[in-house]
Amino acid sequence: MQVYDFSMLSNGELESRTKEGAARDRRAQGERLAQLAEIDTRRLYAERGYSSMFSYCLMELKYSESRAGRWVSAARTARAYPQVFRLIESGALNVTRICQIAHTLDGENAERLISGSLGKNRYEIDKLLAAEHPTADTKDRLCALPQRTPVST
Question: In Å, how far are 60, 73, 82, 93 from 40, measured between CA atoms?
Answer without folding.
Answer: 14, 11, 15, 22
